[in-house]
Amino acid sequence: MLSFCMKYTKDESMSEEIVEECMVYLWERRKDLEEVRDLKAYLYTMVKNMALRSIKQRDKVVSLDAQKYDQLSESEEFSLEEDVHSVLLNALETLPEKCKIVFKLSCIEGLKYKDIAEDLNISVNTVKSQRARALELLKSRLNNYSFLVIYILFLLKRLFF
């Protein structure tokens, strides 16, 4: 089963997990399998389907390889940061005015909700809802830039942690 699964995954540890999961599944449902005529074919089909599903999930995961990032030259890093900054600023400019102001004060300047509410003469709940709305709008506008969102998170982690 392992060698059969390896033909699909090309990853020994993933194949081991898949085969193990299939065997556990069979064992837990052994009473329900009385109707299965060809257990061997059933098992191979199960392993194949789970392998294909695992490959599909693995390929959806976007990984940020920090080692590759560290190998960027300073000019490449600066250019990448400029691009990130530009896309983010453009997305911010598309926000409704109140959302934009609340987002900048909260997320960029780091002010507390209470201070923002006092400065803008609005309630704390309004600040929370405008910030949440801004985040949702930015998320939808940056949806096509998943790599950019990951890069921004990576930069924020480097700056603050």
From TrEMBL:
<dbReference type="Pfam" id="PF04542">
    <property type="entry name" value="Sigma70_r2"/>
</dbReference>
<protein>
    <submittedName>
        <fullName>RNA polymerase sigma-70 factor</fullName>
    </submittedName>
</protein>
<dbReference type="InterPro" id="IPR014284">
    <property type="entry name" value="RNA_pol_sigma-70_dom"/>
</dbReference>
<keyword id="KW-0731">Sigma factor</keyword>
<dbReference type="InterPro" id="IPR013249">
    <property type="entry name" value="RNA_pol_sigma70_r4_t2"/>
</dbReference>
<dbReference type="InterPro" id="IPR014327">
    <property type="entry name" value="RNA_pol_sigma70_bacteroid"/>
</dbReference>
<dbReference type="Pfam" id="PF08281">
    <property type="entry name" value="Sigma70_r4_2"/>
</dbReference>
<dbReference type="InterPro" id="IPR007627">
    <property type="entry name" value="RNA_pol_sigma70_r2"/>
</dbReference>
<dbReference type="InterPro" id="IPR039425">
    <property type="entry name" value="RNA_pol_sigma-70-like"/>
</dbReference>
<comment type="similarity">
    <text>Belongs to the sigma-70 factor family. ECF subfamily.</text>
</comment>
<dbReference type="InterPro" id="IPR013324">
    <property type="entry name" value="RNA_pol_sigma_r3/r4-like"/>
</dbReference>
<keyword id="KW-0804">Transcription</keyword>
<feature type="domain" description="RNA polymerase sigma-70 region 2">
    <location>
        <begin position="2"/>
        <end position="60"/>
    </location>
</feature>
<dbReference type="InterPro" id="IPR036388">
    <property type="entry name" value="WH-like_DNA-bd_sf"/>
</dbReference>
<dbReference type="InterPro" id="IPR013325">
    <property type="entry name" value="RNA_pol_sigma_r2"/>
</dbReference>
<feature type="domain" description="RNA polymerase sigma factor 70 region 4 type 2">
    <location>
        <begin position="88"/>
        <end position="138"/>
    </location>
</feature>
<keyword id="KW-0805">Transcription regulation</keyword>
